[in-house]
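Researcher: Please translate sequence to structure tokens.
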Amino acid sequence: VLSIFNLYKKSYILNGHRNFFNLEVLVSGTMPEVIKNYHDDKLNTSDMTSENFDKITFVEDQGTSVSSINEMFRKSTGDYILNLNGSTLPQGNFFNLFIELKKQEEAGCEMAITSMKPSSKDTCWIPQWASDASNLGVSGDHRPQILRCPSFSRNTIEKHLGGVIFNSSFRHHYVDNWLGHFCYLFGEEKTETASSCWTDINVGQTTKHDAHDKAVYLELSTAAKELKSKMSYNHKVNV
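Model: Translation complete:
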């Protein structure tokens, strides 16, 4: 992320003016020794200076992906939140996500939310059982899109998502399904943008929370059948 930021930050133009922006990087976990040692090495003359590492904040792991990501948001200060997980490597067009969020705001959208696509450019939709549980009346590629590695404006999170990146009832899985699902219920269906892609890093899938998170998602989907557009994003469930 730092490399992409340093290489491309001067190339973004909004409304005819170059857009210079600052960056902070929040990482869940403890600072690796290699970075700590580098940061403390006053004689290092590499292009990756201590100023670059000062942009990184390591936040204590909260035990689950969802709680850790939500904690990082609470400690962040930026106006736009670009989310990555441990198995995705951003490409040079990573900051196009920022441009897409600005476009949504300028178009008058209540919520500014988008997501990267994988390099394969494939699209995923929420499960049919979730669509049916909410009585959305859609199937196939008319279902809400899953928003993998989503990005948001801070205003969207604070005003419409209850101050969290992901519904806090989840632990790891189905969070991006529920995000796309909620946007559909809200009346602003969101899609992943092909203007920003990631490269997969094969680190394996975490499955230990799948049963719990599927039950959470089913209960949210069922509750949405009655609540529809009044459904709260961070709705609490009894699982």
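Researcher: Any highlights?
Model: The two ends are 36 Å apart (CA to CA).
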